Amino acid sequence: MVAQVETTQVMKPRTRRPRVLLVDDYPDARDMYTEYLQFSGFDVVQATNGAEAIERALDGHPDIILMDLSLPVMDGWEATRRLKADKRTATIPVIALTGHALDGYSEGAKSAGCDGFVTKPCLPEDLVVEIQKVLKSRAPRSRAGSRRSTKNEETVD
Q1: Residue 79, exposed/middle/buried by CB under 10 A (0-12, 13-18, 19+)?
Q2: Is 152 a member of any domain?
Q3: Residue at 8 is within a domain
Q4: What is the CATH number of the domain that holds 27?
Q5: Is residue 81 part of a domain?
Q6: What are the strands, taking DSSP E only, across the chain?
Q7: Confidence bin at 152 (pLDDT 50/70/90)
Q8: CA–CA separation, 50 vs 53, rounded Å?
Q9: What values do phi and psi take at 44, rounded to 5?
Q10: What range defines the domain where residue 121 resides?
């Protein structure tokens, strides 16, 4: 007779995937970055120009925005300025994702409100590292990490 062993699987609650708003007017770039970002654990919403980016940011409340700076209709510079000026979107970090690598572009992007700057073409994994860095810097401090132990509490290593 074979003894049956009952197993119980405990499923961890599903955590919400960070939402990325990817703004680029080139379909191939959007598709490539979207596929890699989804594979890396992000939900992705796309926009093709700055005006659409503002609309998607207001509707979708992304955790971070990847903004190409050279866009039709409204460029990424103006879209970023408007997003940062609007209290509903001002706290959403924006990473400039651009083919402009000339001196001054990084500083100009930061003065427009960008929280990071990545030059295209870039490897998708390098983009994920930058996204994680910016999101981590914006994450609220954990209370548990800042809590001090008292004499009556036992510390377990």
Answers
A1: buried
A2: no
A3: no
A4: 3.40.50.2300
A5: yes
A6: 19-23, 43-47, 64-67, 94-98, 116-119
A7: very low
A8: 5
A9: -125, 135
A10: 19-136
Q: What integer pLDDT is reported at residue 38 of this predicted model?
A: 97
Q: Which residues pair with 20 in a beta bridge?
A: 44, 64
d(CA 132, CA 152): 37
Task: Provide the pLDDT for residue 86.
Answer: 97
Give residue-wise pLDDT tens across range 98-107. Answer: 877 666 667 7
Residue range 8-17: mean pLDDT, rounded? 62
pTM of the model: 0.77
* Dist CA 55 CA 64 (whole Å): 14
**Where does the pLDDT of residue 88 fall: very low under 50, low under 70, confident under 90, or very high at 90 and above?**
very high
CB 39 within 8 A of CB 68: no
Q: What tokens appear for 27 in the block? A: 């379909």
Q: What is the DSSP letter of 123?
A: -
- How many domains are contained in the chain? 1
CA distances to 7, 19, 24, 146 from 113, in Å: 52, 19, 18, 30
